[in-house]
Write a structure and sequence with these properties.
GO terms for molecular function: fatty acid elongase activity. It catalyses: a very-long-chain acyl-CoA + malonyl-CoA + H(+) = a very-long-chain 3-oxoacyl-CoA + CO2 + CoA. Its EC number is 2.3.1.199. Pfam families: ELO. The chain has ten helices and two strands; from the N terminus they run H-H-H-H-H-H-H-H-H-E-E-H. The protein has about 325 residues and is mainly α. The protein has one domain. A two-stranded antiparallel sheet has the order 1-2. Strand 1 and strand 2 form a beta hairpin. Helix 2 packs parallel to helix 5. The chain is globular and about 55 Å long. The termini are far apart.
């Protein structure tokens, strides 16, 4: 029995070493890219804080307002997202890419290295966006920390670490570029929302944000779908295309359901029955909207009558494709 356990452990270590050895050597010198262990540790600490430690700390405290911090945070992410989109465009998407089957440039040319850099920066922006949830915890907005929100904010950075580690560039990076384009709009909206009621008159376009998300998922899914109709494509990591297609299609369904329920049928989002544990742990909901699990994550903003409160910064970015 002990021998089998030792053999299993040796095989796990060997497989892990082989996976790490396959990381693109051009990106290994970037922060947190030498091994998935530090990144996994960060995400585990994040989960521990938002699901246990943070709610316990805040249980007997008043919510932090954090208005100025949120305004700065959101507009810094707007600037970062604009820079990332620009770098993706200049690293290939408006220079050498065909927008169809674009393989990863594995050379050390200036443009290829520029793509490697922006791919890493996109991944690191997902680490920064963990602050979305931490702000919710500190402001005691536990009803906004849905299962889908937690899954998205933890799963995306973890999978994209491997994505940028193995495939920094090529047609798989289209998803990242589109995602950051949407984040420019979304974090600009969050920044205005955090600024207070006096900016409400400038947020008349909030309902179109769902449409913007739908357009994102359509673009991402269509771009990935063309891969399946090509006679041949030399893109090196097809699994990334498969994952992007699944992601875009799944979230398109969720957001479409919200759009139908909220705007076609005119149904309101049900208020959540949020209870708090006596020990201070947060309670997380699945938030069913018209039978569509997870749609609460899409937009909870309109579940109260217009004008009853100022717009909340309560729309955690779903894409983070």
């Amino acid at each position: 029995m002990l021998q089998h356990i030792q053999e299993f452990g040796s095989n796990v270590i060997k497989t892990f070493d082989e996976l790490v050895a396959g990381i693109d050597p051009r990106i290994k010198d970037y922060p947190l890219m030498q091994s998935p262990v530090p990144m996994t540790g960060i995400l585990l600490c994040y989960l521990f804080f938002i699901m246990y430690l943070g709610p316990r700390i805040m249980a007997k405290r008043s919510p932090f307002q954090l208005k100025e911090a949120m305004i700065i945070y959101n507009f810094l992410l707007v600037a970062l997202s604009i820079f990332i989109v620009y770098e993706f465009l200049m690293s290939g998407w408006v220079t050498t890419y065909t927008w169809r089957c674009d393989a990863i440039d594995t050379s050390n040319s200036p443009q290829a290295l520029r793509m490697v850099r922006v791919a890493w920066l996109f991944w690191f922006s997902k680490i920064i966006e963990l602050m979305d949830t931490i702000f919710f915890v500190l402001r005691k907005k536990h009803s906004q920390i849905t299962f889908l929100h937690i899954f998205h904010h933890s799963f995306m950075p973890w999978t994209w670490w491997w994505g940028v580690g193995y495939a920094p560039g090529g047609m798989g990076s289209f998803h990242a570029m589109v995602n950051c384009s949407v984040h420019v709009i979304m974090y600009f909206y969050y920044g205005l929302s955090a600024a207070g009621p006096r900016f409400q008159k400038y947020l008349w376009w909030k309902k179109y944000m769902t449409a913007i998300q739908l357009i994102q998922f359509v673009l991402v899914s269509l771009h990935a779908t063309q891969y399946y109709f090509m006679e041949s494509c030399n893109y090196q990591f097809p699994i990334i295309i498969h994952l992007v297609w699944i992601y875009g299609t799944l979230f398109f369904i969720l957001f479409s359901n919200f759009w139908v329920q909220a705007y076609v049928k005119g149904k309101r989002l049900p208020k959540q029955d949020i209870k708090s544990h006596q020990n201070g742990s947060a309670v997380y909901t699945n938030a069913l909207v018209g039978g569509g699990q997870g749609a609460h994550y899409a937009f909870t903003l309109w579940h109260e009558a217009e004008g009853t409160r100022s717009a909340e910064w309560n729309l955690p970015p779903p894409s983070s494709t």
